[in-house]
Design a protein that fits this description.
single chain; alpha+beta; 5-stranded mixed beta sheet; 44% helix
């Protein structure tokens, strides 16, 4: 059982950042995945207990979002975008090739536990299509050949440098990052990593060159007050 007193302390650290405890459920589920590799029944019970909500409420959230896994995940989660743009530019071929090479299908893990493969509906990176992510780190402008090389390197224990962002870690470390409890030194390293977003800026530069602007934001809308936080359990 990995959900011990240290996990409970990390959970409280997460909860303290939110006005209402139940608002911490999403990062809490990432914390569970960091500790156990997926959202286990024990993890659902843990979240319910710590947050003061029902297991049904936790389960409803955990089963809604595809980022929360219902069975053990490999050392690396390889996601291939097969949405329209990526799919047309090669994402479908990449997924098919990796599926054949690894001998696993969607949301399945290789026998050695190194890779969990999935096809993703959208990775929000059309300007770098086709894209593959490993533990949510981007590898842009992929081809069948480059994706195969990437996965072979991962299975050999290597950690290829993502196209953007910090260095590659493990699925569990990525989950700690999403939970907001990543090792401070590693977090600082990721924040300091240089990034190139030139393709993402092309639309903005084009709009400016044509003197086009977005509608003015409505700053007069009244934002309802946040209710007082409930007493700690």
């Amino acid at each position: 059982m990995s959900l011990d007193s240290n996990t409970r302390a990390l959970a409280q650290q997460i909860i303290d950042q939110y006005p209402q405890s139940r608002s911490a459920l999403l990062p809490m589920l990432h914390l569970v995945q960091a500790e156990e590799g997926y959202v286990t029944p024990e993890g659902i019970a843990f979240c319910a207990d710590v947050l003061g909500i029902t297991r049904a409420e936790v389960g409803a959230v955990a089963t809604f979002y595809t980022m929360y896994k219902r069975h053990p995940t490999g050392e690396h989660l390889v996601s291939v975008c097969t949405n329209t743009l990526c799919g047309l530019l090669g994402g479908d071929k990449i997924y098919k090739a990796l599926k054949e090479d690894l001998g696993v299908g969607h949301d399945e893990t290789t026998a050695d536990g190194s890779i969990t493969l999935e096809h993703a509906e959208c990775l929000a990176a059309c300007d770098y299509a086709p894209v593959v992510t490993v533990n949510y780190e981007f590898f842009d402008n992929q081809s069948v050949e480059s994706a195969r090389e990437l996965v072979s390197a991962l299975r050999a224990g290597e950690k290829p440098q993502p196209t953007r962002g910090g260095r590659l870690t493990s699925f569990r470390d990525a989950e700690r990052e999403l939970a907001g409890v990543l090792d401070p030194a590693l977090e600082a390293e990721k924040v300091a990593a240089e990034d190139s977003i030139e393709p993402s800026l092309r639309g903005l530069k084009l709009a400016r060159s044509k003197n086009e602007r977005a509608p003015q934001a409505d700053y007069d809308s009244v934002i309802p007050p946040v209710p007082a936080k409930e007493e700690k359990k």
